[in-house]
Amino acid sequence: MKRNMVNRKLIILFCIPFLLFWHWFDPAARKNAKGIKAYQEKKFDEAMKDFMSAKSNKPDLAALKNNTASTLYEQKKYQEALEEFSKINPEKAGIPKSEFYYNLGNSFFRLNQFDKALENYKKSLIENPEDFDAKKNFELTLKKMEEQKKQDDKKKDDKKQDDKKNDDKKQDDKKQNDKNKDDKNQQQQPQQPQQQQQNKDQKYKDLMNYLNKNEKDQLKNKKRMIGIVKKEKDW
To answer: What kind and span of H or E run contains 152?
Structure first.
């Protein structure tokens, strides 16, 4: 069975009214209480508006930062939630450290930063060794890291194989190109003496034609000379 991560986050519900100089008549306290109610009803957009309104009056209040971060997490804005969680001093916010580190671990997990998630789950378990949810997420994170390592190793192996195939193809292409060049050279080499022989044959033919013509001319002249001998007188 596939194991899912436990999404347990802390919303500060009871400690805020007891903070110094902050009571239920304070506008920020009322907005915070309204935001908590909306959060519990899973109306996260509405809760965020209320928490942000409360923060406009009490921007440095750690409790409100925690509530805002938890709501961002539920809105799947994990990077923003992590940034908000990271601004919190858990002691000032009245948050148990085990819960604080657990929330950080969940945020890192959602961002696939499993090494940092594991580190924070470990811190959470140091603070509260009996936290079953933290144990479960710790084990799940270990499993994810193993899977990620296998995937990374597979990608490296695939890349090596692809690189080898590319190198082999380049070598094959080079060999083929070299072979084509050799074949071309071999084809050209016998053509040269053949052309030379053809040139020689043509010169021989031209010479023979010239000699034959010259010989014919000589014979013609010889006949002509015989034909014009003067007639002798009678004896």
So the answer is: helix 132-227
